[in-house]
From TrEMBL:
Gene3D superfamilies: Classic Zinc Finger. Residues 13-38, 44-73, 78-103 form the C2H2-type domain. Residues 90-136 are annotated as: Disordered. It comes from the Eukaryota. It comes from Colletotrichum gloeosporioides. Residues 127-136 have a biased composition (Basic residues). One of its GO terms (biological process) is regulation of transcription by RNA polymerase II. Residues 90-114 have a biased composition (Basic and acidic residues). This is C2H2-type domain-containing protein. SUPFAM superfamilies: beta-beta-alpha zinc fingers. InterPro entries: Zinc_finger_trans_reg (IPR051061), Znf_C2H2_sf (IPR036236), Znf_C2H2_type (IPR013087). GO terms for cellular component: nucleus.
Length: 136
């Protein structure tokens, strides 16, 4: 049962935005969250003064995107071991991994350095945590 006393419709919660082909959502909450993609509103802002995504700037449609963006400011950075420019740092390991897959396709898949980069996981207390309800 949902909070408003109605049961989940058999077809799920369907987006009625014209032209939207999203699959039905399991909950009203997920449908409401999805509705943000159809809005131009960007109500979530970075708290770092001067950031282009801070108040008065571009902002974010979703809170989780704003939280993820915070790594740009907080992350120690992940440096590509294959690039001569050691100053450029990626805020998350998956950003570095995408860079390596796109720009260093010439690397041997058995290269130990490549394997190390592709196996990196985020560091810190809030990184890689299991979601609520999952095994600890």
């Amino acid at each position: 049962m949902s909070i408003d006393g109605l049961t989940n419709p058999p077809a799920g919660y369907v987006c009625t935005f014209t032209g939207c082909n999203a699959a039905p959502f399991q909950t009203q909450y997920l449908l409401n969250s999805h509705a943000n993609v159809h809005s131009s509103a960007r109500p979530h802002y970075c708290s770092v003064k001067g950031c282009p995504r801070s108040e008065g700037g571009k902002g974010f449609k979703r809170k989780n995107e704003m939280i993820r963006h915070g790594l740009v400011h907080d992350s120690p950075g992940y440096v590509c071991p294959f690039c001569p420019d050691r100053e450029h740092k990626y805020p998350r390991p998956d950003n570095l991994q995408r860079h390596v897959r796109v720009h260093h396709v010439d690397k041997d898949k058995d290269d130990p350095l490549l394997r190390e980069v592709l196996s990196q996981r985020p560091d810190g207390p809030n990184r890689g945590r299991r979601r609520r309800g999952g095994p600890a």
